[in-house]
Amino acid sequence: KDMYKVLEIEEFPYAAFKGKLAEKLDMEVEQNQKILVKGTFSIHGVEKPLEVTVDLKPTPDGVMFYTFWPINITDYGIKRPSVFFIKVEDEHQIVIEGVLIEDESR
Questions:
Q1: Whose CA is closest to 81, among 3, 28, 18?
Q2: Model confidence, pTM
Q3: For a FRET experiment, which of 15, 61, 80, 82 has its CA 20 to 30 Å from that of 104?
Q4: Which residues does residue 47 pair with via DSSP β-bridges, in sequence order?
């Protein structure tokens, strides 16, 4: 609940990464492939460019993905909270994983 306050979820309800593959993904190879993705990450109303390496694995159900990167929360206008007079670290890890599936409505 405290992080909801820190992130001001009422005003900034979403964090988003939008990007494009900077390298070709081989859909025939059903094993992890490290692919560079270039795009933007936004949180707390601040958007910044980002290049990140993503582990991608084609499967019969879609493409599994996993990535992580560090951010300094103060770079995104987020105040460092404190717990009993001790400030929380500025650097945090963003971790994203999931499965991309084809949009069959297209």
A1: 3
A2: 0.81
A3: 15
A4: 42
